[in-house]
Amino acid sequence: MTVDFSSADGPNSLSTKGGSDGSTACVSLVGVTKSYEPGSPPAVCALDLSIRAGEFFSLLGPSGSGKTTTLRIIAGFEAPDAGVVRLDGADVSRMPPYRRDISTVFQSYALFPHMTTEKNIAYPLRMHKVPKPEIKRRVGEALELVSMTGFDGRLPHQLSGGQRQRIALARALVSRPKVVLLDEPLGALDLQLRQSMQIMLKQLQREVDVTFIYVTHDQGEALAMSDRLAVMDHGRILQLGAPEDVYYRPANRFVAGFIGKSNLVPATIQMSGGRAVASCGEFALRVPDTALPGAATLAIRYEALRARPAQDGLDPSPGEHLGSVRDVIFLGDGLELVVSVSGVDLVVKVGGQRLRDFERGDRVLVGIDPNDIVVLDG
Ligand code: ADP
Ligand code: MG
């Protein structure tokens, strides 16, 4: 699809590239706190957040962690009890939503049921008294952007769930906002459609170069689409970074447990000749030498561990530990083995293996690269 927005008028054309080098904070929250009821724990607590222009930024967390509240505060639907919201550096904390140059896409299709696709998309432009010929042109462009050209006469009930969300997206983009907020927009769609919509959304965001703030409880979605993401729990940000950082370097047990699958193993770290060694039950593991002595939790991704059948007479290689298989779980594209190593159960993901390759009771060698171990506070 090629839509040439370079001919579009005005400084806030959709193709405006300004700020996508990451130098400008497009949206920033400083110390934002919000309680819905006096005495109840805050829905959002002392939140500091700085989102760059042109970024695809996700808020990821379990239900009730404060994602929607954060989004509603950015949009202006809720006022914070304390703290400041800035848009391009300007304090908008007291500014009503319609003046904020922000559009929102919700999970439930907030399309007007009695209006055609065309009228739905045109609505924000009609509110802003844009001349009719321009409305027609921009609605056409927005429809093309979401690959829905030709659907302008349909009513919402004549569209599938995925198509309705495309129209909601077109309506959010047609006013050429600085920021689009998306609150679990794919939550009502089935898995396959969700995955194809993820790709479409990411491509679209790159194309229009608008800042997207995306709320989801689905880690796969956040990892696949985001430039950066913030992991939230109980109204606080527990870690903020690029998907790879958050995945491979979880900052705490919550993040290690919430994103991907990790073994969390209690351990005691000791230094021996400048090397860090973790004692876990009855066996010892090399860990990164930057670890501090004392009680710790080791986070080890399931897929970072290796397992191979132990053969009699063959000693483990360095970094390998003898264990026995306690359980085998079939995943389709591989297996998860629960392996008991000196009394510690470790889950190992072995990709591409068939069920017949491992059995309960098998003796296996579990390999661990010290660099794949993240040492967290005990
Ligand atoms: P999320 O979007 O991550 O699921 P929310 O921001 O919706 O989280 O909710 C955060 C917390 O605030 C939850 O404990 C929720 O029950 C509470 N909450 C959300 N909206 C309201 C409301 N309108 N009135 C009272 N409590 C609310
Ligand atoms: Mg929510």
Structure description:
The protein has 378 residues and is an alpha+beta fold. Helix content is 22%, strand content 34%. It has helices spanning 67-75, 117-127, 132-145, 161-174, 191-208, 219-225, 243-248, 253-258; strands at 25-34, 44-52, 56-60, 82-87, 90-91, 102-105, 179-183, 211-216, 228-233, 236-241, 262-272, 275-280, 283-286, 294-301, 306-309, 320-330, 334-341, 344-351, 363-367, 373-377. It has a six-stranded mixed beta sheet with strand order 6-7-8-3-9-10, with helices on both faces. Residues 67-68 line the site of magnesium ion (MG).
Features:
378 residues, alpha+beta, six-stranded mixed beta sheet, five-stranded antiparallel beta sheet, binds adenosine-5'-diphosphate, binds magnesium ion
SS-based class: alpha+beta
Q: Number of helical runs?
A: 8
Residues in helix, %: 10-25%
Distance between the termini: 52 Å
Bound molecules: adenosine-5'-diphosphate, magnesium ion
Arithmetic mean of pLDDT: 90
Along the chain, the helix and strand elements come as: EEEHEEEHHHEHEHEEHHEEEEEEEEEE
**Order of strands in the sheet with the most strands?**
6-7-8-3-9-10
- Stretches where pLDDT falls below 50 for ≥5 residues? 1-22
The rounded Rg comes to 25 Å
Q: Strand tally, please?
A: 20
Query: Outline, from the CA principal axes?
Result: elongated
Please summarize the sheet with the most strands.
6 strands, mixed
Strand content: 25-35%
